[in-house]
Amino acid sequence: MKIQYPELNPWHKRQAALIHHFTSMEYLKGLLPQIDSLLALTDQMLDERSHLDTAGRALAGWNSQDTASHFSTYAYPALMEFREGIVKDIALRSIEQYSVAGEHQCARMLEEYAYQMAWATPEQEALFRETAEKVFSYARELSGLVARPPVANDFSFWLLWNEGVISSHRIPKFRIRTDIVVRTNQVPPRTGIYVAKDDPMASLQFAWTGGYGELCPAMALNDVGRAVLKQIGREGLWGDTEALYRFLDANRHMDPYGWSDTQADVAEVAPSVIAGSSFDLHDCDWHFIEPVPDEFEDIDGSYIGTGRQDRRPDRVAAGKPVPVAGWWYTPAQGSRRYFKQGDVFPTINSDWGDTFWIWAQDQTPPALS
Question: Can you say whether residue 356 is alpha, beta or left, with left for phi > 0 and alpha for psi between -120 and 50 degrees?
Answer without folding.
Answer: beta
